[in-house]
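Let us work through a complete example step by step.
Step 1: write down the sequence.
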Amino acid sequence: MAIKEKVGLVVSNKMDKTVVVAVENRSAHAKYGKIVVQTKRFKAHDELNACQEGDRVRIQETRPLSRTKRWQVITVLNSISEL
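Step 2: predict the structure and record it as tokens.
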């Protein structure tokens, strides 16, 4: 079984060692062809509390860490503090 990875935007970092990452899925509508954007939010483990709101991060699926947390932050791709 392959390890799932996703890239998304940090929308909340108010919890301790947890961030909420919004992942966008852009796909064409089956009948009309218009691009439809669907957003799903994942809670991810951030051990060092390094992520800020607005950062683009790569997350990876892991074992259940809490009732809703099943992902962990692998890398910060674009940090808001670098800009």
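Step 3: interpret the result. The first strand starts at residue 5 and ends at 15.
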